[in-house]
Amino acid sequence: RKRLRPLRTVVAWRGRAEWDQVMVGLYCGDSRLQQEALDRVSAWKSRYGPKMPLAVDCTAELVRCKVLDSSGRLKSHELILSYGMALVRFVNLITERKQKMVSIPLRQLAREVDIPIWVVDLRHELTHGKLPRLALCRKGCDVVLDWLRKTYWSRQLGNNLCGESEDEEEEQEEEEANAELYNDAWE
To answer: A biological process (GO) annotation for this entry (predicted)?
Structure first.
């Protein structure tokens, strides 16, 4: 009788400690540490190629935009394009997995995975309309990074990195503020 061995999964990172270090580096807010984490993600990508988790890739692209923004080396228009590309890729890649044989509207797919609808509308404007203000792109980046932290990174660690959960009233106020920011941007 053969003894079954547990299946092993090959990953690009060395171990749990490296994974944790990169996650903390990406979300720490210190540009130098973020750049180190981005360099590590680039190394993972070279090892793992197309198998790289979409959430890791999207997080890295969005954090890279924030690092470029904080460096002061790019003009406003260049930053809008940088944030825009990262946001468009995020929405497209995350919703693409839920597409079936028939085309499903992005707004519906986003609702299913709890991505704010205004982020999908922002993606639509970036793709098909007039470029939005930099402030809206920054806000979109922050919201998406927070979504990735809550729905991907925290779950990978098996704990809640998001801190204490906000009560429903605070979440409602934040949604209203986001909607207001979005509406102001297009008026």
So the answer is: maturation of LSU-rRNA
Give the C-alpha separation, 137 to 149, whole Å.
18
CA 81 to chain centre: 16
Residue 94 is predicted with a pLDDT of 87
Task: Name the residue type at position 31.
Answer: S
In sequence order, the 6+-apart residues with CB closer than 8 A to the CB of 186 are 125, 132
Instruction: Compute, in degrees rounded to 10, the torsion defined by CA atoms 60, 62, 63, 64.
Output: 80
pTM over the 0.90 mark? no
Average pLDDT, the chain: 83
CA neighbor of 148 nearest in space, from 89, 105, 81: 89
DSSP state of 165: P
User: What integer pLDDT is reported at residue 156 of this predicted model?
Assistant: 77
Pull the structure tokens for residue 186: 């297009």
Proportion of the chain above pLDDT 70, given as a percent: 80
pLDDT band at 162 (very low <50, low <70, confident <90, very high): very low
The one-letter code for the residue type at 133 is R
Q: How many helices (H) and strands (E) does the chain have?
A: 9, 0
